[in-house]
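Hmm, how's this folded?
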Amino acid sequence: QVRLVESGGGLVQAGGSLRLSCTASGMIYSINAMGWYRQAPGAQRELVADITGGNTNYADSVKGRFTISRDNAVITSLQMNSLKPEDTAVYYCKAIKTGGRAYWGQGTQVTVSS
């Protein structure tokens, strides 16, 4: 019903920046919130940031460094600055429709070298 495709991942040195994009297609009506999650090897998937209307939330570990934004009706971005090796993970895009139904992308790898 909703397809999410992440892009923009890659290899970057510590202190560098990277911008991830999530493109939504299909039945994109009634999307209430968008979010970015990440999962490092051997770790649980965790919330990085989400946006609902004009409200944004961030994990403590990324506050002040990452910014989530709705660039247009179908693209949600995550600007990542001052990257650290501990930011290395697969990053996933998530869409939540009114009523609670959720959709996930396949993920994009972000690797930060020291």
In short: The chain has a mean pLDDT of 96.
